[in-house]
Amino acid sequence: MPGTSSTMSDTIKVGDFLVIKRQKYTKLQKFTSLDTTVHLGKDQIELRALENQPYHSTFQLVPKEGRNRRLYSLDPVTEIRNLKELLIKESGVDNRNIVDDRSTQNLSAEEIQKLREECESSSEIVGKLVENSKSFASKTEYSQEKYLKRKEKKYFEYVQIKRPSIRLIADIYWRLDVDKVMGVRFDTLSQIISYSGVCSVGNFLLYESGTNGLLPAAFLNSVGAGSAGRVVHLHPGNVAQKQALQAMDFPQEQLERCISVNIYSVLRHFHQSKQKESEKGVENGKEAVIAGGGDEENHKRKIESSEDDGPEAKQPKLEEVAKKPPQQWELDNAAACELMGEKFDALVIVAKEHPQNIIKALLPFVKPSRPVVVFSTTREILTECYMELKAAANVTYLRITSNWMRQYQILPNRTHPDVTMSANSGYLLTGYTIR
Fold this sequence. Notes:
The protein is about 40% helix and about 20% strand. By secondary structure, it is an alpha/beta fold. The strands form three sheets. A seven-stranded mixed sheet has the order 2-1-7-5-6-4-3. Helix 3 packs across helix 4 and helix 10 (about 265-290) crosses helix 13. The chain starts with 16 loop residues before the first strand and ends with a strand. About 30% of the residues are buried.
């Protein structure tokens, strides 16, 4: 299966990235050491108990003794109490006579705060609130469930620890800050992967200018472990953003098949190498012409000059001796240039800047009949690129599309779409290269 490896541990280890889930809220956190703590709202949670526990386990928040009542440790649990079964014993026919105000609750705010300090679990707190509610038993069963969910959300005491996945990371980044992923929602990300045809076979060229490593992580996940697929990840900065790549915990051999290089540096390296090869070819041609003349006198002069040079001529130059070993970015540039010479099976561009010049620079490195995908949050920008490619006639079947995704709540007798949602997640320009 792409993105998985037999070396991955099924248990939580120090150094792992974790997804901590509390009801609908999720957070990406690195388990740096046994002393690591995480903040969920106002609550501070110690993660020490997670070591060697299985992924997808559920833990109960246990208050720590001391002055800080918001500090919790974790205790593994096998099941979560069902408040509906515990607390709903009788229900009313309708809510017409119920007045929803503070007078229906016998407990004051001070007494409720004292409950939070004294009770060991959220179910105890909610149970006390239900006991002291004048209107709870008169509400319909549906209203009672909504009340319990609202109170449970406020006092919920359980967290679940999940292994990071592309879907979870994309959702976390999107919820925290849309700009962290350049407006690429998960459904749009899936469309980019689908249109580009990224798989375990082939070489793929990606340019992105800041998605916290989400795009290269998604590409490498689709390429999979132990495959022949390779990704060249171009970026505009000095160092590539790789948080999502690190969070996915890919095997080393899989990570090595994603080469991250600065776009300007690698293009300069590639074109300079081509120019040197061309100049060397010209020099070799001149030498071949001279050698083909069969001039004995020239040949004699060459022998004499080599004898005059003596042993000093055979000694290496000081510059060559003092030459430093190549740095990692130079090795990455060389590896990327080698793949650029072979050409790629797809080109994907997700750019903050106008992608027109980037398309021009990278399109020559794509094989014929291969997909080209360009993402932008602005339709007008992609329209300009569409007209340019149409005029150049080097990409066919050009299309501009946008995604519109809506989630639905599916429950018995109350299925409905989400009321609040993000209407748009950018636009895609897609096509296929031609000779």
